[in-house]
Amino acid sequence: MTKKVHVFNHPLIQHKLGIVRDKNTGPKEFRELVEEISKLMAYEITLHLPLSDVEIETPVTNTSVKRLSGKKLGIVPIMRAGLGMVDGILSLIPVAKVGHIGLYRDPETLEPVEYYAKLPEDIGERELIVVDPMLATGGSASAAISAIKKRGAKNIKFLCLIAVQEGIDKIHEDHPEVPIYTGALDPGLNEKSYITPGFGDAGDRLYGTK
Which positions bind uracil (predicted)? Predict the structure, then answer.
């Protein structure tokens, strides 16, 4: 691993990720687990946030406590599967703003095409976490990062549940400054560009579609 790739080895993340991989895990449990894993990852990814001292009054006396010192955060899910990660992060960081990026793959060129983008107006002032459960070929993730950069984003992290080296290489070829955070680094892709062993199509498993 390079310093730009961080694999979460927390036992709870690894345990829950193992259940997510099981083909017998249904949509309801899958959604709940993705939300729980995202919350645990959000705890880990925000360890660097700066604090400042604030004077308050407890029921007993005056004291100094720690508060987040004005760091502006944003979450940008890549639709549709990235939506499954948003609520878990928001449960820890409810003041974060949420943008959305929608992409589809052109059937002829196989390149990602942007069809929707709605982002916070102050995107350039925020630390942004781009989320998608899977980092496979990296094409969609790289295109999403390019789209938000084009609109003024400067501080970006990418967060996923599982990744393969091909996707990591694609992001770092196009966006070498963007750190990648993942729950697992899987061996590779099959002939259909699915992560193996992976957990199948995240969107289908989240929403019970085929």
Answer: 195, 200-202
